[in-house]
Amino acid sequence: MISRFSRQSAAANPASATTKSNPAPTAPPASAQTPAQTKGAASAKKAPGSKNDLLSAKLRIHSKLIDEIDLSDLDKLDDEALRRQVHTLVSEIVREERLTMNATEVVDFANAVFDEMTGLGPIEPLLQDESICDILINGPKQVYIERNGELELAPVTFADDAHLLRIINRIVAQVGRRVDESHPMVDARLPDGSRFNAAIAPIAVDGPLVSIRKFSTQPLTTEKLVGFGAMPRCVADFLQGAVAARVTTLISGGTGSGKTTLLNALSSSISHKERLITIEDAAELQLQQPHVARMETRPPNVEGKGEIKQRECVKNALRMRPDRVILGEVRGEEAFDMLQAMNTGHEGSMATIHANTPRDAITRLEQMVAMGGMNISEDAVRGQIASAIGLIVQATRLADGQRKVVSVTEVTGMETNVIQMQEIFHFERTGTGPEGEVLGTHRATGLRPKCLDEMLTRGLHYDTNWFDPHGDLFREQP
Questions:
Q1: Which of 31, 250, 289, 477 is the most buried (most CB within 10 A)?
Q2: How far apart are CA 359 and CA 451, in angstroms?
Q3: Which residue, 76, 395, 462, 16, is CA-closest to 240?
């Protein structure tokens, strides 16, 4: 007997039709059914009313489609053709089981079944919603989303832990990673570049935990960041000029503060003639230059071998003739090799780091170098940092969900054994609005940055009036 999927494929292309060796079982006549079977058949014809009923029906029809579809034909169809086939089969099954659904509900139901087969199940619509920034799954029955900086409970659930685990395994398999009891935590990325993290039992107590940091299909530019109020135009122009002038920049901030987004936006100022090498744990940077070589770390295999750390990638990157090295995040012993690169002809390199203030970022760098076990004095480490780092840009996610650049600080050198820094711009909070929104403005400190001379030397002119501490940085520029 030819399956429904194969029959329809044969109608479009007879050469692609295939047969199944095992005939489908036929149901006994109603007169031969037992009372229990009759009751089950009657209940199957009822419309799935509650959310749990719909989820159960979706999974049941999904399983039925897997039995019906000839998997050898799947690779021959694109997504749209496969979606049409699934919609046709789902419509037939809905009619056979006499599920009470109107045309719109059948289409939505077929889309959900298609997402279950080829996508990420219940969270697929959330991934398609561009207004959602984060998807946070706390077990199969609780899914939160972040929209406009605020968390809210999403109207989606998974059937059980096994259902959620199946989706997790589908994601990590796409990037060649794994998650199981021996390695219950994993970092990965989705095809669109979104960051994915999962933790399962025995680490996760109440079911698998998943967090997805979505990335826009169209990278945010400095123009958009200015439009969102993340920073004034004059601050954005200064940072773009500094990056173009090959001032080494470190972007600091907490989790979810927009560090990677800011790095992506500022990197647009890098010349298209330069060779860039990016190094990340999970590749998510979206640089717009044509000459970008991307590297990604690798976790250990089942035997605990084969791990490739960021430090090894940085060392190898220096042999690949980079003009700039860009680290997605510096978090360990690779900090020393990064500083070495920045001090040996790779000025203008960029990285992000977790820290609450620019001074904390410097302290963390010192601690990371110490993690490498290098036999080097503290003064020597601080000298390396003072020579390598030019600017520290502090990004913060405020209490109301706004993400802002709250400080632009220049590293000016060493005095005795202390790294000297001067703040150029900062965000001054002035109060709280009636709906809890944070009120404030960006101001200049009145200090003229040393890197301005380098910018002017390279023909990048900047209006020094913006360094006036009494000026309004959000006024129209001349």
A1: 250
A2: 19
A3: 462
